[in-house]
Amino acid sequence: MNTPIYSGIITNYVCTAACRHCMFASAPHLSKEYISAEMAEKLAVLLQEAGTRSVHIGGGEPFMNFDALTTLISTLRHHGVGIDYIETNAFWCSDDDFIKERLSKLKALGVETIMVSVDPFHIEFVPLERPIRLCRMLRTCGFDYFIWKERYLRSLWNLDHSRTYSQKELKAALGEKYISETASEYGLGMNGRALFIADSLYPRRAAEAWLSDVPCSSLGDTSHCHLDLYGNIVPSGCPGISADARDYLEENFPAELYPVLYRLTSGGIRALYEYACSKGFVPIPQGYPSRCALCYAMRKYLRECAPSADIAPDCFYYSMEKDDIYS
Ligand code: SF4
């Protein structure tokens, strides 16, 4: 069995924000599901068996269910799996005492580090005063923390900290091209909702131009993957593709159960293309700005006509539909 190393737990796909670059297409309108105590136990046992020493915790937004978050942390620690850091967009940080109370509970559970999201995408949903207040309280309470990304705290500093900003206002403040500029300087894996930014960054090419027999390096790579609330592993950089966590760590992708993963790992995107076309998929004449955009379009198509366990989670495709430009 492979060992997840710099891996994370996805507590939920729902979030208080719906950022334009979100890898998992998280959004407030998604179901409010959160990782259960039973699933936390199942994943903790698997990670212990796999020899994983620690994980990070992310979402969606992990602080949307604080009690379940603390249950997850104590379960992981019970099985010898530490917490590298917890990600948050700080939506919950409007009162010092409330923050302090939560941080003291996390400290008692051995959590030492918090990752605070700040960028021109999050400010459409979370006023800057929230992450700023959280950072101040983290310092006060003796936590380590890092801002993802610090540069945007500087570039957004002169805005009104007490409110969110629309795309129109951010264009006026940061420049007409701030979305594509932020995306390229951010070093984003242009996947998930960022696929819709990719179109403004890269020229479209015909589907055939993206075909390759070489499996994508991110598949089967357990050095950085995500284990989600459904007990599946999502390869890093490949949202919308999933497999049961144990199957994934054992690289066990039988074609009947995982027709998409089996083909992507054995014959690259060309094998998936041949399979999708055999099911009636027709690429759009405008083409695709990236291999991942084609991959997403084929999976979205197959989800309708030949659903399989590896085209998941459902909420990802449901959330992407709203902005979809590739079908
Ligand atoms: S083409 Fe598909 S499998 Fe390959 S990296 Fe992109 S999303 Fe992942």
Could you explain the architecture of this structure?
With 327 residues, this protein is of the alpha/beta class. An eight-stranded mixed sheet has the order 5-4-3-2-1-6-7-8. 40% of the residues lie in helices and 11% in strands. It has helices spanning 37-50, 66-78, 96-108, 129-140, 150-156, 167-174, 178-186, 195-201, 245-249, 259-278, 291-305, 314-321; strands spanning 8-10, 54-58, 82-88, 113-117, 144-148, 225-228, 232-235, 243-244. It is globular. The mean pLDDT is 95. The protein has twelve helices and eight strands. α1 (37-50) packs parallel to α2 (66-78), α3 (96-108) crosses α4 and α7 (178-186) crosses α8. Residues 191, 216, 218-219, 237-238, 264, 269, 291-292, 295 line the site of iron/sulfur cluster.
Q: Globular, elongated, flat, extended or rod-shaped: what is the shape?
A: globular
Helical stretch count? 12
- Structural class estimated from helices and strands: alpha/beta
Cα end-to-end separation: 38 Å
Strand content: 5-15%
Largest sheet: 8 strands, mixed
What's the gyration radius in Å?
A: 20 Å
Portion in helices: 40-55%
Q: Give helix and strand order, one letter per element, not per position.
A: EHEHEHEHEHHHHEEEHHHH
Look at the structure and give the mean pLDDT: 95
Q: Any ligands, ions or cofactors bound here, and which?
A: iron/sulfur cluster
Q: Oligomeric status of the shown chains? A: single chain
Number of E strands: 8
Task: Enumerate the strands of the largest sheet in spatial order, edge to edge or round the barrel.
Answer: 5-4-3-2-1-6-7-8
pLDDT < 50 runs, ≥5 residues: none
